[in-house]
Amino acid sequence: MHFFEEKRKEVMSHIEPHMLEKMFEYLKPIDTIWQPSDFLPDASRSTFFSEIKELQESAKGLSYDLIAVLIGDTITEEALPTYESWLTMVEGVSDNEEGGWMKWTRHWTAEENRHGDLLNKYLYLSGRVNMRMMEVSTQYLIADGFDIGTGRDPYRNFIYTSFQELATNVSHRRVASQAKKDGDTLLSKMCGVIAGDEARHAKAYKYFIEKIFEVDPNEAMLAFEDMMRKKIVMPAHFLREVGLKIGQTFGHFTDAAERLGIYTALDYVDILKELIEDWHIESATGLEENGEKARDYIMNLPARLLRVAERMKNPMLEYKFSWING
Ligand SMILES: [Fe+2]
Ligand SMILES: [Fe+2]
Asked: Ligand 1 centre from 293 Cα, in Å?
């Protein structure tokens, strides 16, 4: 066990200089990147109240399920403290406070912080949300943390974040197009820029793993296999509402997303396929026997999951969230 940890640390510090070099290809300069206020009514202007009225008018057209998904997405984004503190606990990340990994973690957090901020303000202004109920769920989610099955292993963690950034990209992108269909162009724009951020972040995490595959292919393959066997759980899997037990709201949130086609079992398979391609799993070299077996498992997985997904029925059970007014 100790040997593996040492090796991981070695690999992490080997990649660190590349990180510092490449990091800003995946991040945008702070002074010019979008900020929540670019999209929201400006309270210092005399048009503030009429702008809010307009915002509320278009928010009226959003379907119940879409509002539910948007709230779940927002709470997920707002649990950012969990993700940042988690990343700093990953083996090799915080060894050097000024090193590439810590720098990446802080810059990534800074970009991510705008997502929950923007969506929360939008939802507050929309008038459709019981903010107190939503805030309680947010506090619960941060307090409850998560259990994503990665331990402190950087390989498993960055495989997880690669997957997760792609999943949030899909989800925000779909909310954007659904919002547009429902007549809310402002919300559509907001979710569009957030989806753009997630796509950049996904590229970064995928690059880290690509580098890891270059120097430690067998262990990287085993880590990938392990994460896929466990299945990638969503970071909000502990989601709950007032009076409910830990995780009890999560299934209703994902049902709403599945019903609307915002994020489905098919998307899970598509993301897996993308990772297999981008990490050149099929043609990976330098594998030992167990690595070869792991590769076989991964290569066969999309077809297997697809068969399962085809048998799955669209969840019809309607659920009344405490978060939504009326
Ligand atoms: Fe985000
Ligand atoms: Fe993200």
From this structure: 34
For 226-277, the pLDDT digits (tens) are 999 999 999 999 999 999 999 999 999 999 999 999 999 999 999 999 999 9
Residue 212 Cα, ligand 1 centroid: separation in angstroms? 24
Per DSSP, 36 falls in state: G
Measured in Å, residue 175 CA sits from the centre of ligand 1 at 13
Ligand in nearest proximity to the CA of 113: 1
Q: What residues are labeled active site? A: 34, 77, 112, 115, 165, 168, 197-198, 201
Q: Using the CB atoms, write b or e for 5-32: b if 16+ within 10 Å.
A: eeebeebbeebbeebeebbeebbeeeee
If phi > 0 it is left, if psi is from -120 to 50 it is alpha, else beta; for residue 61 that is alpha
Are the CB atoms for 279 and 206 separated by under 8 Å? yes
Ligand nearest to the CA of 204: 2
CA distance 253 to 250: 5
Pairwise CA distance, residues 165 & 168, whole Å:
5
Residue 244 near residue 253, CB atoms below 8 Å: no
Say which amino acid occupies 317.
L
Would the pTM count as exceeding 0.85?
yes
Return d(Cα 127, Cα 56) in angstroms, integer.
7
Considering only CA atoms, which of 31, 16, 30, 14 is closest in space to residue 97? Answer: 16
Tell which residue, 133, 116, 228, 105, has the closest CA to residue 168: 116
Interval between CA 295 and ligand 1 midpoint (Å): 30
Backbone angles phi, psi at 281, to 5 degrees: -60, -40
- Tell me if 267 sits within 8 A of 170, measured CB to CB: yes
How many angstroms does the Cα of residue 125 sit away from the middle of ligand 1? 20
Ligand nearest to the CA of 160: 2
145: left (phi over 0), alpha (psi -120 to 50) or beta: left
